[in-house]
Amino acid sequence: MRFRGPARWSVYLAVMLLAACHAARRPPAPAPAARPDASALTSLRRDLDAILAQPTLERGYWGVLVKSLSSGETLYERDARKLLMPASAMKIVTLAAAAAKLGWEHTFETSLFTAGPIDGGVLRGDLVAVGSGDPSITSADADALFGGWAERLKAAGIRIVEGRVVGDDNAFDDNGLGFGWSWDDLPDDYAAGVSALQFNENAVRVTVAPGPAAGESAGITIAPSGSGLAIESAVTTTAAGSPTSIAARRLPGSMRLALHGTIGAGAVSATLTVSVDNPTLFFAAALRGALIAHGIDVRRPAVDIDDVHDLPARAGAPIAVHRSPPLSTLAVRLMKVSQNLYAETLLKALAAGPGGRPADADSGRKEAAAVLAPWGIDAGALIQRDGSGLSRYDYVTADALAAILAHVDRDERLRGPFEAALP
C-alpha cells in the first residue's frame, strides 16, 4: 500500500477478498459446485478469527467477506455490510468500472500540433501538446518519444520555433486533487494531482546529501528538471552517525517545497519522491528541453494553456501522435504498485467524451455508479469520492466489493486482464 500515517484496518478486506478469488476459482468447464472440505473451512475460519483477534488490532474495525466463486456460498463473514474506509481497495471499484465502460483496449492519446505558419524553417508561432490523460509517459521515455517528435518537426521543415511549447490539458478540468485529500499528503508522490497532460507520474526525485561537516547545510538536487518547484531547504548536517530525518511540505497551489530536518555527516544521500504542483507545465517543460536537445531551437518558454491568451488556431492535423499502452497494461501498474495517479486518471476518463466539456471527477463517479448499478451494487453500500481511495470520504462494504469481484469473474470480457493485474 502507498498510504502513510495511521493504519486503515479496512484496507485488509481487499487482501482477503482477492485471496478468496484465487483460492475458490471456478473450474474451466461446467461442473457441480463442490462444497469446500469441512476441515479446510474450519482452518480458514480459525485463522481469520486469530488474525482479527490480535491485540494490536483490537481498536480497529474490519469488514470481511469470503465467498466461493463456484457456488456463491459465504465461507466467512465479519461485518460485511458495514461501511468502512477502503483505502486502496477503492481501486477495485475504479478499475472494474473503467474496464467495463472503456474496454481493455482503451488508450490515451497525446498529440503535437503547430500553431502558426512555417516560413524558411521557422515556425512563426507555438507548438501545442494536447493530452487526454496518459499517465504512463516518464522521464525514461522522454528521449525516445520527444526525440521522435523532434524528427517529425524536422521532416516538416521546422528547425526553429519562434513561440512557446504550450501544454493543452483542457480534456480534464483543473481540479487535480481528489475530494477529501489531506493537506499533509500533498507533497508526496502518492498524492500527485491528475492532469490531461502528465509526465513522470507528476513527481520528481529530491536528493539530499550531507554537507562537508556538521553544522553545514545539506546539498539538494532535483530530477528530472522542469518541475517548477522552488526548493527552500532548512536541512542541516549533524554529527556522523546521527539518524537521517527529513520532511517535506508544500501547500496546495504552491510551487514552494519546504524541506527541513537533519542528515548525518558522511551518511548516504536520502531521496524523497515529491509531487509537482502543475503537471501540465512539467510536461511542456520536459518536451521543450528534449526538443532543444534534439536540435530544435525553441525561442520562448513552456507554458500551461491556462496562462495563454493569444494562442492562434492550430493546424488541423497533428504533426505527431503518441498512444499509451492499452488499459490492460496500465491496469498492472495501477493494481500491483497501487499507483493512485492511474486510478484518478481513470475516474476522469470515465467522464470524457465528445463535446469538448472537460472531464471531472464528480462526473466520473456518476459514470462509475451507472456501470455498477446493473451489477446489483446497492447504492448505499458504496460511497465513492475519488478513484484511488486516498480520500477519507470514501466508504464501501465488503459485501459490495465481493459483488464487484464476483461480477468481474463471471464476465469473460473483464476477467482475464483484471486477474492479471491483481497484486
What does this structure look like?
30% of the residues lie in helices and 20% in strands. The chain has 423 residues and is an alpha/beta fold. Among the domains are: 38-80, no CATH class; 83-105 and 327-395 and 410-422, Beta-lactamase, CATH 3.40.710.10; 183-275, no CATH class.
Please describe the structure with a list of short key phrases separated by commas or semicolons.
single chain, Beta-lactamase, five-stranded mixed β-sheet, four-stranded mixed β-sheet, 19 strands, 10 helices, 423 residues, alpha/beta
How would you summarize what this structure contains?
The chain has 423 residues and is α/β, with parallel strands linked by helices. The chain has helices spanning 12-23, 38-52, 90-102, 139-155, 279-293, 327-336, 340-349, 361-372, 398-410, 412-421; strands at residues 64-67, 74-78, 109-115, 118-119, 122-123, 126-130, 160-161, 165-168, 203-209, 219-223, 230-238, 245-249, 256-264, 270-275, 297-298, 302-304, 320-323, 382-383, 395-396. Among the domains are: 38-80, no CATH class; 83-105 and 327-395 and 410-422, DD-peptidase/beta-lactamase superfamily (Beta-lactamase), CATH 3.40.710; 183-275, no CATH class.
